[in-house]
Write a structure and sequence with these properties.
This protein is of the alpha+beta class. The protein has four helices and seven strands. The longest helix has 46 residues. The two termini are 38 Å apart.
Length: 189
């Protein structure tokens, strides 16, 4: 009887520790996303100073850290990020996956910044995510050397996208399906 009571207490203690550890890991992931977003926005402002005013006036923005690979006819990418409502400062943590087919070869580490001109565009992105297709890319960048073309593209009414290549080399022409969606684990409080 005493053994069963001790075993139950130990089991509860282990479960509590595991739950606390999982939440601690999630908070580390949230903080990592926040830091990545802050650094990415600073990089964007240096590259294109007018973007700072546009983002400050926007309904919201989302910043993603992505790693993409392309090997001959198959391309994939995955990443994570954060969307922020400019007015309420509400954060929504998100994920991204992509797959496609086309000619190319390369690996690249890149950032994607969405800017939402109005609440409707931001809400639709948060509720439905976003899917995209067709991509052409020629980028070469390693640390602070090299160059990558990046500019805003309107992907939907009221939604502008910037892309910054951080590291890697890629030459590709692909038809790519991309999905951005909420990270249920990181959005739990």
């Amino acid at each position: 009887m005493k053994f069963k009571a001790i075993a139950c207490v130990l089991a509860l203690a282990l479960l509590s520790a595991a739950a606390y550890s999982g939440e601690d890991d999630n908070e580390k992931k949230r903080e990592k996303s926040r830091k990545m977003a802050t650094q990415t926005l600073q990089d964007l402002y240096k590259l294109q100073p007018t973007t700072q005013a546009a983002i400050q006036k926007s309904a919201g923005y989302a910043v993603f850290n992505n790693m993409g690979t392309n090997l001959l006819v198959v391309s994939t990418a995955r990443g994570s990020g954060i969307a922020v409502n400019s007015q309420s400062k509400q954060e929504t943590f998100m994920k991204m996956v992509s797959a496609g087919a086309g000619l190319g070869v390369g690996v690249k580490d890149y950032r994607v910044i969405f800017v939402f001109e109005n609440d409707k565009a931001l809400t639709q992105f948060l509720d439905s995510g976003w899917s995209g297709s067709a991509q052409t890319d020629a980028a070469a960048k390693a640390g602070k050397s090299g160059a990558a073309y990046s500019g805003a593209v309107e992907v939907a009414p009221g939604v502008w996208v910037y892309q910054i290549t951080k590291n890697g080399i890629a030459l590709q022409i692909t038809l790519q399906g991309t999905k951005y969606y909420k990270d249920d684990d990181l959005n739990k409080k």
